[in-house]
Automatic annotation (TrEMBL):
Alphabetical list of InterPro entries matching this protein: Homeodomain-like_sf (IPR009057), HTH_AraC (IPR018060), Tscrpt_reg_HTH_AraC_N (IPR009594)
Record key words, sorted: Transcription, Transcription regulation
Protein name (database record): Transcriptional regulator, AraC family
GO molecular function, one term: sequence-specific DNA binding
Lineage, top ranks: Bacteria, Pseudomonadati, Pseudomonadota, Gammaproteobacteria, Pseudomonadales
Length: 321
């Protein structure tokens, strides 16, 4: 039985003809095996959840522009293709040489900029549970994770053979389902360990350290995701996560590239879009349900984020389904 596609609606983007990056001979062999594994477990366009629940296989046969959405913490590795990801106006590009990590939930948009039917975009995504990072640190003790000034909650880092090997071993388990309950958690811990030991691993490390300001920003992000329909009172949010108002603003923007209010707006507008597209709600009803009291304000902010007012945007999206 084929896996179930869970990819959100997407619109086409212009193709990119730039050459693919080069890898060492050893890593090229690993990349080729990873590509073949993904191709087998993603038999058509889309994102497919596997028997290992946090693990997804992704395939596209042509360049695509994805719908903006809130993406939970995850590791993304490309076997074939190239992808641009935008966060708050900042561009991150990853490919077979470089993996992408989201350490916190972030509203992003992505564009597959290299893919053809003969050479499809092939990638894997492993969702990251911050509790697993916390447990790993607690059990492993001091790990000599590099300490640097905190940065964005999303980063791109050069891939290495050890990380590729662990990822390939995890995906191989899909061919031996009886081994998944015992071995998948062990290999996943190894993957997280290797991410923590990377040069940018401190960004994952910080989300698990309770007395760290980045961890408190993570708690603010979690609160906003759970209460985005409610009016945002920044003083109350700062008290909730035990930060001053000025520190919350500064640290929140450092991690997410936007203010708490801008983050809340993205959550509201993306949920309203989902409600209209999936549940058939009218624009005014969707806006009201996510916390907007003024239909005109909802329409203005929706147009600013998605490039068109609700009715025109939905009509455009439905043509791509």
């Amino acid at each position: 039985m084929l896996p179930t596609a869970v990819e959100p609606a997407i619109a086409r983007a212009a193709p990119d003809t730039r050459p693919m990056p080069e890898l060492s001979a050893t890593m090229e062999q690993q990349r080729a095996e990873l590509a073949e594994l993904i191709r087998r477990h993603a038999p058509s366009d889309g994102s497919f959840q596997t028997l290992i629940k946090p693990l997804f296989m992704v395939r596209h046969d042509r360049p695509l522009q994805s719908v903006p959405g809130v993406v939970q913490p995850a590791l993304c590795i490309m076997a074939q293709g190239r992808k641009d990801v935008t966060l708050g106006g900042e561009l991150f590009t990853y490919d077979p040489l470089n993996y992408l990590v989201l350490s916190v939930a972030l509203p992003i948009s992505g564009k597959v900029i290299y893919a053809t039917p003969e050479d499809p975009h092939l990638a894997m995504r492993l969702d990251i549970d911050p509790a697993d990072i916390n447990a790993l640190i607690a059990q492993a003790g001091p790990m000599s994770v590099p300490t640097r000034p905190s940065g964005r909650g999303m980063y791109v880092e050069r891939i290495d053979s050890q990380l590729l090997d662990a990822v390939i071993r995890l995906i191989r388990l899909l061919d031996s389902p009886k081994d998944i309950p015992m071995l998948a958690p062990l290999i996943t811990r190894e993957i997280l360990y290797r991410l923590l030991r990377g040069s940018e691993g401190y960004r994952l490390y910080e989300i698990a350290i309770s007395n760290c300001q980045t961890h408190r920003v993570t708690q603010a992000i979690k609160w906003l995701n759970e209460h985005f329909q409610q009016p945002l009172r920044i003083e109350e949010l700062a008290r909730e996560v035990n930060l001053s108002v000025s520190t919350l603003h500064h640290r929140f923007k450092a991690v997410t590239a936007m203010s708490p209010l801008q983050y809340q707006k993205q959550l509201r507008l993306q949920e309203a879009r989902r409600l209209m597209l999936a549940d058939g709600l009218e624009a005014s009803a969707a806006g009201y349900k996510v916390g907007y009291e003024s239909p005109s304000q909802f329409s203005r902010e929706y147009s600013r984020l998605f490039g068109a007012p609700p009715l025109r945007d939905l009509a455009r999206l439905r043509k791509t389904l």
